[in-house]
């Protein structure tokens, strides 16, 4: 049975890893929530959004995603940063410990450590690496595209090697666990990390998930656990499909 909440998710028109993580967490917990799309490339919408943030003391804040909710005492809250949002959703609405165990400090600290490793190290490094490779895909040091920068192969290799090292860390963690990052059940750490690891364009950086069999198996299992359907294989990395799968059920 769906759980009524006062949550509104504010997100950009495209569905990135952060928006996807939030949507998965709320859908797994069967939470009802609303979505408002903010097109930050539209000057009018961006201005209105910044004014809304200014009105609650977040002057100049234009980042997304953001959620708002109402506490039991009636106070309105606004939360940003994916780690804070996932932790709040789990602490407030995960009554059955489906994505975050309750009353176990040791487990809680482990989950928080790997959650913030995912969103503070793994995810940003993956974004930076893929962004650099994509932006310089057809460029060399001697033939830069007009207005662009030539590829520095040392930089490209460094980013790829660092990303491969982080995938190896994740692969070894999954090898020692029981199928998920911290045991036999996914947590908010798995949800956050999964949405980055699942993208299939890591091949742009010369990396394949086949190098990391434990990560590959975990990603496939996460798609199944999250209830994603109608995918051309489990490694397509088209995160829009995740939002679409849930929007028909949950998003109004």
TrEMBL record:
It comes from the Eukaryota. InterPro entries: Glutathione-S-Trfase_C-like (IPR010987), Glutathione-S-Trfase_C_sf (IPR036282), Glutathione_S-Trfase (IPR040079), Glutathione_S-Trfase_N (IPR004045), GST_C (IPR004046), Thioredoxin-like_sf (IPR036249). Residues 104-243 form the GST C-terminal domain. It holds the Pfam family GST_C. SUPFAM superfamilies: GST C-terminal domain-like, Thioredoxin-like. Residues 5-97 form the GST N-terminal domain. Belongs to the GST superfamily. This is Glutathione S-transferase. It comes from Claviceps arundinis.
